[in-house]
Structures are given as structure tokens and as C-alpha cells.
Write a structure and sequence with these properties.
CATH architecture of the largest domain: 3-Layer(aba) Sandwich
Number of domains: 2
Structural class: alpha+beta
Membrane topology: Peripheral membrane protein
EC number: 7.3.2.6
Number of strands: 21
Helix content: 10-25%
Largest sheet: 6 strands, mixed
Number of helices: 9
CATH superfamily of the largest domain: P-loop containing nucleotide triphosphate hydrolases
Mean pLDDT: 89
Keywords: ATP-binding, Cell membrane, Membrane, Molybdenum, Nucleotide-binding, Transport
Bound molecules: adenosine-5'-triphosphate, magnesium ion
Strand order of the largest sheet: 7-8-9-3-10-11
Shape: globular
InterPro entries: AAA+_ATPase, ABC_transporter-like_ATP-bd, ABC_transporter-like_CS, ABC_transpr_FbpC, ABC_transpr_MalK/UgpC-like, GlcV_C, Mo/tungstate-bd_C_term_dom, OB_MalK-like
GO molecular function, one term: ABC-type ferric iron transporter activity
Oligomer: single chain
Strand content: 25-35%
Length: 395
């Protein structure tokens, strides 16, 4: 079993006036058998976090624990990479081009001088599990990207690691095989009962695999939580965007008799009762805010549907016009405009809507999010930050 803990870990590269802080004061815990995600944009510090866990880097300050034992602390590695029992799939898979798939998978076992019979058994077991038996005799240059990725996963698993680290493992794969690659990894982790971590900038990877995740931005851990919690209760606009799509409307909010009036652009103006809008109450009358609405919390009514009744859960935001709509797995992705708002707004529809169609826009009342002008949520939920200084991070 393995549980990982980071305690106030900072990692800087370079010296003197050329110091680059890649990870700043990060604390988090990954429980035994958890599938933990790390999500953030390019350069956020994701790979650095994995390299620290793998023992390929030492933290400049702070401590890293495996099962309550210190493995690295304040610039010193106490348990080296070989002693940590980790399988890692690197961002570029890093397969040996001159070796066959079999030899790539067997490589860590040969390095351990395991008997040939055992190696063969292990490689074949993993190749069966990941469905690549037919390519074992071929070199990486002669197999598909999806197969290379599975060879890399098999190699990472060959040593029976107690921890599997995956660094953007699907970024070089076609959209069509990404889903099957994700479900394969998910079932392998389940079957082998190991702790796993995945780094990605793609929310789809995080949602399909991770139970819990950390959102990192500029080396700072902004929020840690269950994936659905990050989605529904983001600390900031950065988090909301990292974990999914969100429409953001700069607005002004007014308070009146237990109601809020929200205005955006020329055309958005609606009232909502204080109970439905789950703010933390620290909103001033006339305050500038940013209204955040997830695509799935919008419903579009066309002229025919406009007379139909909708329940109290929805509020009429404004009228607008469809810009374009496209098809994506069973639903139509619709981009529309509303007068006086320069941004496109994104949602989905069960029916195709052609460009220019006038629409009436409804929004689910208690799913609206509000952020202050710094981009920090002013909603009534609490978040876990992982020790970083949040306000600084949001700027
Ligand atoms: N060995 C190094 N020397 C100097 N700077 C480094 C080193 N490794 C990483 N960095 C810097 O630290 C920051 C974080 O890098 P890291 O590779 O962890 O980002 P990442 O989140 O994995 O990005 P990507 O999504 O592009 O892979 C970057 O600014 C990077 O340039
Ligand atoms: Mg990286």
C-alpha cells in the first residue's frame, strides 16, 4: 500500500537571480488506492510534482512522505527513485526505439536480473491485460500511437509498482481512442488495486479517471477536492476554467428586499431570490461581479417553445441569436450571442439550431456562480487550498 503526503513543498530551479519557482508551498495527501488528478495549464508545475514524487527531483524546501516515512526533505532525497516502487508513464512515453515492445516492457525486470521465465510470464500477463499481445515482437516505430501508449503503461506496471504515475498519457492519442485508453487505465488500476496519479490539462482525463484532484496554477495549489466538487464549487475562475467549460459574463449586482438584480451588457437583466443565488452574502449593492454559467445550466427556447412553461428552477436571462451549432455525441453544441455582450456563449441543445435562429435564454437558478473582480468566488461554499496563498494565486 502507499499513501503520499506533501508538506509545504517548494521546488525551485536555477540559482541567484535566475531562480524559477516551479512549485510553491504545496501540501496535499493522496490516499492508498486513490486515483488522484493534477490539473493545470502548461508550465503550471504538474510534471515537476510527479518528478518530486518519483524521486527524480528533491524538494528545495518541505517534506514528502510515503506511508508516513520521509522520502525527501529540504533539498535531500532520503529514499531514492529505485526504492520507491513507482511505475511512471512519461509525457512522451519514452520507449526505447531499438527494442521490441516485449523488450521495452521487460526492461525494468531485466535490470533487476529476474529469471527469464518469470519475465516472460509477467510481460505476457500485462500484454493480455492491455490487449497488445500481437505487437510484442514489434518496435515502437512499427505500432500505432495507442499501442505505444499501452506498451509504456505495461512497462510502468512490470515491476508491480504500488504507485502508478501518468504524465499526460493520452495527449498524443486520437480523440477516438482516448476514451478506450482511459477506460483501460481505469480498469487496470482497479484490478491491480494500486494508487495512481494522472497529470493533465484536459478535464476529460481528470473526470474519467480521478476521484480527487488538485488544481495548480503558476506552481501554486489553488484547490483540492473531489472532482465534482471542483466543478461545482470552484474557488476561482481559474479553477472553474481548468476543470470544464464556463461562460463568464461581467455583470453588476444590486440588492433589494431579499432579492438580487443582476445586469450584464444591454440586454441581460433579471432578478433572483437570495436563497437561490448561493452567495456568501458579502456582496455590496452595485458591486461589479463576473457571472459564471456552465453550458449545461442553460436552456434555449425557440419561438415555438417560448410559450411553453418552465419551472421555477429556471430564470429568463435574455433573448439572443444562434451563431452556430455543431454536433457532438448525441447533442448539438450551440454558440449564441446576446446583444451588448461581446463574448460568444456556449451551451448544448437536443435539436439542431441553425445560425440566425432567435432564441430565449433560460438559466438554472441555483447553479449560477459569482466571482469578484479578482476572479475569486463569492459563493457560500468553502474550499481546500492545499496550503497555498489563495488570493495571490488568483491574480
Ligand atoms: N529542470 C528545470 N530547470 C529550470 N526550469 C524548469 C525545470 N523543470 C521545469 N522548469 C520550469 O518550471 C515550470 C513548471 O514546469 P513543469 O514541467 O512542471 O510544467 P507542466 O505543468 O508539466 O507543463 P506542461 O503542461 O507544459 O507539461 C516551468 O516554468 C518550467 O519551465
Ligand atoms: Mg508537463
Amino acid at each position: 500500500m502507499v499513501k503520499i503526503e506533501f508538506e509545504n513543498v517548494t521546488k525551485s530551479f536555477g540559482r541567484k537571480n535566475r531562480v524559477k519557482v516551479a512549485v510553491r508551498d504545496v501540501s496535499f495527501e493522496v490516499k492508498h488506492k486513490d486515483f488522484f488528478g493534477i490539473i493545470g495549464s502548461s508550465g503550471a508545475g504538474k510534471t515537476t510534482l510527479l518528478r518530486l514524487i518519483a524521486g527524480l527531483e528533491a524538494p528545495t524546501t518541505g517534506s514528502i512522505y510515503f506511508d508516513d516515512e520521509v522520502v525527501a526533505e529540504d533539498g535531500k532525497i532520503k529514499v531514492p527513485a529505485e526504492g520507491r516502487n513507482i511505475g511512471m508513464v512519461f509525457q512522451n512515453w519514452a520507449l526505447y526505439p531499438h527494442l521490441t515492445s516485449f523488450e521495452n516492457i521487460a526492461f525494468p525486470l531485466r535490470a533487476r536480473k529476474q529469471p527469464a521465465e518469470e519475465i516472460k510470464k509477467k510481460v505476457e500477463f500485462l500484454a493480455e491485460l492491455l490487449d497488445i499481445k500481437e505487437v510484442l515482437g514489434r518496435r515502437p516505430g512499427n505500432i500505432s500511437g495507442g499501442q505505444q501508449q499501452r506498451v509504456a503503461v505495461c512497462r510502468a506496471l512490470s515491476k508491480d509498482p504500488s504507485l502508478l504515475l501518468l504524465d499526460e498519457p493520452f495527449s498524443n492519442l486520437d480523440a477516438t481512442i482516448k476514451d478506450s485508453a482511459r477506460s483501460l487505465i481505469r480498469s487496470v488500476q482497479n484490478e491491480l488495486e494500486i494508487t495512481a496519479m494522472i497529470v493533465s490539462h484536459d478535464p476529460a482525463d481528470i473526470f474519467s479517471l480521478a476521484h480527487n484532484a488538485l488544481v495548480i496554477s503558476n506552481g501554486i495549489s489553488i484547490q483540492i477536492g473531489k472532482t465534482e466538487e471542483l466543478y461545482n464549487n470552484p474557488y476561482s475562475i481559474d479553477v472553474a476554467r481548468a476543470i470544464g467549460e464556463i461562460n463568464l459574463l461581467p455583470s453588476t449586482i444590486f440588492r433589494k428586499d431579499g432579492q438580487y438584480l443582476i445586469r450584464a451588457g444591454d440586454s441581460v437583466s433579471f432578478s433572483i431570490d437570495a436563497e437561490s443565488l448561493r452567495t456568501d452574502g458579502r456582496i455590496e449593492d452595485g458591486q461589479k461581479v463576473i457571472l459564471g454559467i456552465r453550458p449545461e445550466d442553460i436552456r434555449l427556447l425557440t419561438k415555438q417553445g417560448r410559450e411553453s412553461r418552465y419551472s421555477d428552477e429556471w430564470v429568463h436571462l435574455c433573448d439572443g441569436t444562434v451563431n452556430i451549432s455543431g454536433y457532438s455525441v448525441g447533442v448539438f453544441r450551440v454558440i449564441f450571442n446576446v446583444p451588448g455582450i461581446s463574448k460568444d456563449i456556449v451551451t448544448t441543445s437536443e435539436v439542431p439550431l441553425s445560425g440566425g435562429t432567435p432564441i430565449s435564454v433560460l438559466v438554472k437558478k441555483n447553479e449560477m456562480l459569482l466571482f469578484n473582480s479578482e476572479g475569486v468566488s463569492v459563493m457560500n461554499y468553502e474550499v481546500t487550498s492545499g496550503g497555498s496563498r489563495l488570493v495571490e494565486a488568483s491574480k
